[in-house]
Amino acid sequence: MKYKLLLTSSLVAIVAMGLLVGNINAREEERVELNKVDGIPENPTVNSEWARYYPRQYSSWKKTKESDNIEDLVEKKPQLAVIWAGYRFAIDYNAPRGHYYAVQDNINSLRTGGPVDDKTGPMPTACWTCKSPDVVRLIEEDGELEFFTGKWARYGSEVVNAIGCMDCHDPKTAELAVGRPHLNKGLKAAGLPTFEESTHQEKRSLVCAQCHSEYYFKKTPYVNKEGKEATAAVVTFPWSNGLSAEDMEKYYDSIEFSDWTHKLSKTPMLKAQHPGYEISSTGIHAQKGVSCADCHMPYTQEGSVKYSDHQVRNPLETMDRSCMTCHRESEEKLKSIVARKFERKEFLMEIAMDNLAKAHLETARAIELGATDEELKEIRTLIRHGQWRWDYSIASHGSFFHAPEETLRLLASANEKAQQARIKLVKVLAKYGNAQYIAPDFDTKQKAQALAGVNMQAEIDAKMKFKKSLEQEWHKVAKSKQLLDEENRKDVDTKSSYFGN
Fold first, then answer.
1. Contact, 253 vs 349, CB < 8 A?
2. Cross-strand partners of 301
C-alpha cells in the first residue's frame, strides 16, 4: 500500500511537472514571438502601426487617453497672468494631459493663436517639437534647420500623430532611440555622455529628457535649399555651464537672451519650459540610479512576458509596481509623505508668485511716475532672476516630488529676490511721491488678465474661426497623405479651457 501511494504521488508530480514545463515553454515561445521585430512596415509615425508587434505596450499607451481632465491653471493661480503679462502663457495655460492629447492640446491652446494660412500665427514651428513622432520624420526629411524655420502653422497638416512609439524607439529595431538632435548637442555642451554612449538605464531617462527639459529657440542663420539666406529658431538646451537653475541663468545672462519683455515692468524675462530632467537629476531617486521609466512606466508581468507599461502617469496610481518594489513603508505612509511635500511647495510658491506679481505692478507704477531705466536696472535684474528661479522650480510640475529640497531652495531664493526688488521699489516710488502705492488686486483670472491687457474674447474668436476653417483643411490633407491615424484622433477635440467643459 505504501509503495502504491508513493508511485501514485510520483506520477502526479511527474504529470504536474510536465504540465508546468509545457506551460513555461509555451510562454517562452510567446515571449520570443512577441519580441521578434522585422521593422515597422509602413508609416512608423502612426502609432497604431506598432500594435501588431507590441500589442501590450500599444494597448497601455492608448490608456493615456484616460488622463483627459482640463485644469485651467490661470483660473486656479491668477497671479500667472500678471507674472506672464505680454507673453502668451498669460492667455492660456493648462495642466498637461495624457500623451494621447499632445497634438490636439497644442492645436487648441490659445497660445498658438488662430492662423489663417501656413505663414501666419504668433508661434514658430519649434512649438511642435515635443508633440509628435511626426517631428522626428520631418527633421529626417527636411533637415533640422529647415524644420525650425517659419511659422507653427506651416506643419499643421504634417504633425498629426500624438506622442508615441517613434518618439522613443527606432522603428527598425524597437531599441530606445532619440530623433531630436538637440539632446545630444545639449549633452555634449554639458560634457556628459551622448545618448549612444549612455547605459540602457540612463537611456530610459534620456528618451524623456529630449522633451522634458529646459530649452530656448536659438536664432541660427543658414542657407536653405533654394540657396536663400534664412533664419531657423532651433530648439537648444542651455547646458554649457551646467544643468542647475543658476548655471542656466548665467548662460542666458551671458548671451543677453530673453523670451519676452514684460508688458508691465518692461523687464527682459526668461520663461522656463519644463526642466523635469534637470531638476530630477538633483533628487534622491536619480542619484540612486532610478530612471524616469521605472516610476512613470513601471514593468508589468503577464505570464512570461515582462513589458514596460506605456500608460505614462502619476506613480501614485501604480504604487505596487512603481514604489513598493523598493520602499518598505506602507502605501498610505508614502502618500502622506508626498502630500506634505506638495503642501510645502504650494506654500512657498504662492508667496513667491504674490511678491513677483506685485513687483511687476510696482515697477509699472514707477515707470508711469517717470522712473528711468537706470533707476530700475537692478530691480529688473532681481525680478528676472527671481521669476526664473520660481518658474524653473515648478514648471516641470512633479519637481516637489522629484527633488523636494532643490524645489524649496529655489522657491525661497525666488521669494527673496522678489522681496529685495520690492524693497528697492519703495525707495524709487518714494522719490516720485508715491511711497504708499498699493498694487491692485489680481485675485481672479478676470482681474489679472485685465491688468495684463489680455483680450480673451478676441483670442477665443480667432481660435474658433481657425478651428472651423484651416484646421479642417489640415485634417483633409493629412488623410490624403495617409498620415492621419483616425482611430487615435477620435474624441480628442472635446475639451479645452474655453469650450466643451
1. no
2. 306
